[in-house]
Design goal:
By secondary structure, this protein is an alpha/beta fold. The protein has a six-stranded parallel beta sheet with strand order 8-7-6-9-10-11, sandwiched between helices. A five-stranded mixed beta sheet has the order 1-2-4-3-5, with helices on both faces. 45% of the residues lie in helices and 15% in strands. It folds into two domains: 3-63 and 76-139, Leucine Dehydrogenase, chain A, domain 1 (Rossmann fold), CATH 3.40.50; 147-342, Rossmann fold, CATH 3.40.50.720. It is globular, with a radius of gyration of 21 Å. The protein is built from 14 helices and eleven strands. Bound molecules: nicotinamide-adenine-dinucleotide. Nicotinamide-adenine-dinucleotide (NAD) binds next to helix 5 and helix 6. Residues 144-351 form the Glutamate/phenylalanine/leucine/valine/L-tryptophan dehydrogenase C-terminal domain.
């Protein structure tokens, strides 16, 4: 692989290879863009079949975080890391502490969090070696389970969509079809129930379904029935790529708004949804509640402040809808525009001497 060519393609700032023979650590950290602030992103642990596969994955994920943080209004850049290994068999305290030391060498340019294959316990080990980690244990200043915050963000984003389509943002009496009632889906059902919405749910896990039927009066359907149901909102909270060539003609909803990542199988499916008159809330913006919540740890975690920030997802979705109309583009493209416009505005700010390395050099001279 021509790595510099790959980095140039999407203007990656940095790719760091971390190797520690003693602990078996083989990790890669990708810093995509730090215009808005330090690059924050999770560490994925996965038994990648090849180094190329790991590099491609970490680069793709890091770039996604730049857009997510920028569109969510966070003062953070985009980064991600991967540890090559099997999370079921290869985890040790020494491995994560070794990784923590590498993160420390970056001096705060990259802040690590949990991702697929890593946990709060692993973050606690990393925390021993570096302060540049979030998602640690609640007893160490952590923000706890992100899923209630992700669900709250989805609810707020849904309100903006409902307002656009039906003229007011009330969810009372609206029918929402929730696909997947796991961590996020459960909390979303709770919030929708409190807001007076009618719930139709599905999950491959029967006891998860039974819980929301019992607690929130949801109606249960089979997994293959949920997409074609006549409803106001389809909320994908299980898998990615459920909006594709096969499903778009069958969708029975007016709005697609859920927590799942990569809801659109391909970017062109955003256009196809718009053509069918279905409003799509871009996944990486509407599901950013967990990220906004965990990022709050950087200021000393405050649940009330984090909740307020998550609630602003409603406004972010409104802005995206406005850009979509302004530019005549589907909402998934408008979300990217929102992110890129913010990055461009900040990077074009005047470089004042106080913030410039030269300014710092001068200040140091003055104190000598
Ligand atoms: P989860 O594993 O707790 O829940 C997913 C649920 O979907 C499970 O109950 C599972 O049984 C069900 N499911 C799997 N296949 C299904 C199918 N074919 N049909 C119906 N249900 C099916 O995961 P989660 O943490 O609730 O996350 C849900 C989605 O939201 C994921 O795509 C995740 O990447 C995304 N997400 C989650 C968070 C968060 O804070 N947890 C943040 C951002 C994005």
């Amino acid at each position: 692989m021509q790595i510099f060519e790959k980095l140039a393609e999407y203007r990656y700032e940095q790719l760091v290879f971390c190797h520690d023979k003693a602990t078996g650590l083989r990790a890669i950290i990708a810093v995509h863009d730090t215009t808005l602030g330090p690059a924050l992103g999770g560490c994925r642990m996965y038994p990648y079949a090849s180094e190329d596969e790991a590099i491609v994955d970490v680069l793709r994920l890091a770039r996604g975080m730049t857009y997510k943080a920028a569109a969510s209004g966070l003062n953070l850049g985009g980064g991600k890391s991967v540890i090559i290994g099997d999370p079921r068999t290869d985890k040790t305290e020494a491995l994560f502490r070794s990784f923590g030391r590498y993160i420390e060498t970056l001096g705060g340019r990259y802040i690590v969090a949990e991702d697929v294959g890593t946990s709060t316990e692993d973050a606690n080990f990393i925390r021993v070696e570096t302060g540049h980690v979030v998602g640690v244990d609640v007893t160490r200043g952590g923000s706890g389970d992100p899923s209630p915050f992700t669900a709250l963000g989805v609810l707020q984003g849904m309100r903006a969509c409902v307002e656009e389509v039906f003229g007011d943002d009330s969810l009372a009496g609206r029918t929402v079809a929730v696909q997947g009632v796991g961590h996020v889906g459960y909390h979303l059902c709770r919030l929708l129930h409190e807001a007076g919405a009618r719930l139709i749910v599905t999950d491959v896990n029967a006891s998860a379904v039974e819980r929301v039927v019992r607690m929130f009066g949801a109606k249960a359907v089979e997994p293959d029935e949920i997409l074609a149901l006549a409803c106001d909102v389809y909320a994908p909270c299980a898998l990615g790529a459920t909006v594709n060539d096969d499903t778009i003609p069958r969708l029975g909803c007016r709005i697609v708004a859920g927590s799942a990542n990569n809801v659109l199988h391909e970017a062109r499916h955003g256009e196809a949804l718009a053509e069918r008159g279905i409003l799509y809330a871009p996944d990486y913006v509407i599901n950013a509640g967990g990220l906004i919540n965990v990022a709050d740890e950087l200021e000393g975690y405050n649940e009330r402040r984090a909740t307020k920030r998550v609630m602003r997802i409603e406004d972010r979705i409104r802005k995206i809808i406005a850009i979509s109309k302004r530019d005549g583009v589907p909402t998934n493209v408008a979300a990217d525009t929102l992110a890129l416009e913010r990055i461009a505005a900040i990077s074009s700010m005047e470089r004042l001497h106080t913030g410039h390395p030269y300014g710092q050099l001068q200040r140091r001279r003055e104190t000598i």
